[in-house]
Amino acid sequence: MATAIVRSALSRAAIRVTPKTSVAPKRSFSSSAGHDDAYEAAKWEKITYLGIASCTALAAYVLSQGHHHGEDPPAYPYMHIRNKEFPWGPDGLFEVKHNDGH
């Protein structure tokens, strides 16, 4: 964008310096043929805000819905067998303590 502004200013200065008989032809780029850049920027800004709002609404809807956690596995007695004491005591680090005194 800045280079286009500088190029435009330089071409205008060159036209003023050269005689009127040799006018440089105006270049028209296909990307800006008849489009207003401010209009395009405003359009994409509105589209961006609409996209943000719709994604936020969709995420709020999806996260507000309940989901299935599954069943708890049965408490089989053979799954809690401890044949050897842990170095930190009779209970695991992340288990409920089985101390009857407390």
From TrEMBL:
Subcellular compartments: Mitochondrion inner membrane
Record's keyword terms, sorted: Membrane, Mitochondrion, Mitochondrion inner membrane, Transit peptide
Source taxon at top rank: Eukaryota
Annotated PANTHER family: CYTOCHROME C OXIDASE POLYPEPTIDE VIA, CYTOCHROME C OXIDASE SUBUNIT
Name the UniProt record assigns to this protein: Cytochrome c oxidase subunit 6a, mitochondrial
Organism name: Camelina sativa (False flax)
